[in-house]
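Question: does this match?
>
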Amino acid sequence: MARKNRLAEAFKENYNVVGLAGAAALSAALLNPIPLLIGAVAEAAYLLFVPDSRWYQQRLSQRFDAEVNARRKKLRDQVFSVISENVQERFTRLEDIRAQLDGHPLSQETWMREVCRKLDYLLEKFLLFARREVEFAQYLENVYAEVVVGLKGKRRDKDGPPIPNEDRARRMVTTIQERFDDEIAQLEKKNEDDSNTQAVLDKRKEVLTQRHEYVGRIGRILTNLGHQMQLLEDSFGLINDQIRARPPEQVLADIEGVVTQTDAMTNLLDEIAAYDDMSRRFDL
């Protein structure tokens, strides 16, 4: 943590705030500035030495870790309610690998703390990707049921929404898009004399074209999400191996590469935010 941030955190500590307030109150009660001056000198010494002390840096590190763990537990509880048992088990294995590193002999080294922080970040991303995978899979299943099978409404499976494998997802997308193409071709054959009717037909073609493109994009993202989650699993195993045999610089470089790739996937998901209204119509 940067020194500026450590200074701010040290200043906001409860015992520091109470001490300053007490010195000010005592000066006011005695009508004597000496307690306040003593408090100011003590505060200057406190801010000069404490924020840079190893003890205080460990205190901040422990506090940060506790906040990260609490946030991840909350996210885990939310996501576990919608993902399959298989994905839950995959995530639990990653958490176990991360927990083992806390007991590593080098766990308090700066570079090791950085590795652990990045793994914490990737754990949260795995949960977020798992939730999005379910959402996109359900969307694809619903559109397939609507367009191909001819079923309106939502499909619900008591064990949770299915996640199609890569081949099945590709076939589903192709079949859905072919149905859209057929509908568009039929509409193009129609030429209505009434301008209002023709405007409606043209709008239908526009909507079907957009749905055609969106389904293709969702299919690609669904496939990419599956590969990205597998990459995270492989990377956790690799980092766990490397810590015992590779220099810190190499370990950090490898995990940074995974973080960069994960951020790229996150940005890709953010790019489809404009289509969230369409996705929400097929919420779980």
